[in-house]
Recover the amino acids of this structure.
């Protein structure tokens, strides 16, 4: 069965520090998809990125970057020069192609607090 | 497009009461699902639907019923609310064309069962 582990429950940094959020996944499927979502204090879920299992290229979007490594089953998320507005709960999620249900398995989330 | 809408935003129930959480999407998406979010546990799948008339159970289906009579609507019913069902509920939808597609989430319903 699929599983997503976010071992860091809460991280606190000072503004402008870099921070990496870890995500480790388990799946038997060879075709799967990984996602990151942000949940700010207002409560909505904001889609950040998706990556399929055949694309191990790292991605950078502004201050955000993602490191996908199939060898270690990890999909880590780095925020460079963090800002107070980055304070949120971040979820990593997995979707397997083989199940057909197209739903997501979420990790338990990492709460990031960026102090001014 | 309104995207995925959920009503109500907040609800307080007494143990044993029943209610229906509404979810609608206007993107003609085949796939819809319900999740609950509890502190420290992320989001867990309750029920999902791959099209009108087709529903199935997720990880935590007990105490909830769903039906999908139209493509647009996917209501979640609590038959006899229990304090353990106090949670934030999210509805989501996604297009069925392409298994890579993004899920769109509604704004959530915060439910408290006393």
């Amino acid at each position: 069965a699929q599983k997503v582990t976010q071992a860091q429950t809460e991280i606190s940094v000072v503004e402008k520090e870099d921070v990496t959020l870890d995500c480790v996944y388990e799946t038997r499927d060879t075709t799967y998809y990984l996602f990151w979502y942000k949940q700010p204090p207002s409560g909505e879920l904001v889609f950040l990125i998706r990556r399929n299992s055949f694309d191990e290229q790292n991605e950078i979007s502004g201050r955000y970057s993602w490191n996908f490594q199939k060898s270690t089953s990890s999909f880590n998320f780095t925020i460079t020069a963090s800002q107070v507005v980055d304070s949120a709960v971040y979820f990593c999620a997995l979707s397997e192609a083989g199940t057909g249900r197209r739903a997501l398995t979420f990790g338990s989330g990492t709460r990031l607090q960026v102090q001014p | 497009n309104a995207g995925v809408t959920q009503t109500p935003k907040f609800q307080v129930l007494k143990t044993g009461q029943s209610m229906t959480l509404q979810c609608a999407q206007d993107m003609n998406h085949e796939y819809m699902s319900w999740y609950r979010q509890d502190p420290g546990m992320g989001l867990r799948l309750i029920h999902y639907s791959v099209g009108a008339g087709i529903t199935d159970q997720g990880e935590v289906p007990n105490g909830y019923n769903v039906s999908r009579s139209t493509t647009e609507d996917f209501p979640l019913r609590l038959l006899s609310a229990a304090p353990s069902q106090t949670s934030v509920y999210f509805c989501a939808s996604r297009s069925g064309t392409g298994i890579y597609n993004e899920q769109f989430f509604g704004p959530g319903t915060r439910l408290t069962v006393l």
